[in-house]
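We emphasize that the prediction below concerns an isolated chain of 237 residues; any contacts that depend on oligomerization or on bound cofactors are therefore not represented. The input was used exactly as deposited, without trimming of termini.
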Amino acid sequence: MKFDKCGATFGTFLVLATVCCALPKDSSEAADVETLDGPPFLADLRDQCRNTTGDDRTFNELKEHISTDLPKCFMAHVNMDQLKTDTSKLEEQEKKKLFEKICEQINESVACLTPVKAKLKPCLDEEDVKIMEQVVATVPEALSMACTNSGALLQKFTEPAYRSCAMELPPMIEECTSELPDSMESLPFSQYSDKQCGEIYNMRDCFARRIKECGATGYMDFFILFYRKLLALTPCK
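Result of the prediction step, given as a token string:
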């Protein structure tokens, strides 16, 4: 799994958050959302699940759950009509109240991740389980950050620049993780040396540069949050 898969997970979180909090208002925008192929890390998980479990059954169950049960769980917690509200027509106080309600609902929806963890765990080795636990444990903290000050950061997700940038995250993450050496895939985090740490720092700098170019710098707050949590698993500073 390692940092490239973690990057994909981070990107998926941001894309889903943006899509959920800024649902399309017209058909042309809907087409953009429909081009999302789903979580990019799923493609990498198939072989890993097959190698670990011996067949595709676990992976197929996971994919089916993420495709059907996870959205249903989310929608059971979150008022979709509120998510579709055109916030440009709201007064500032009305907008704050709306995002406070949305934040409360999204926080409740974190419970939907529990069965995903259970279905994913059989596909992972011991080190990958640690990474998964760290990433999932960071989600509530990320949501709390987004919802501070009546969802001030979450409100940014409704801005055109953020919605556009969210669609660029998967290729952006692919670009910034593609230079990580294959040797890092099998090396435990605890054995990282200055060389591996340098590669991680380069990945971080690449992502920071691309986010700045994208014009949605608020995403860096989330990236740094996940990045620091994962970095804590290594000797890197």
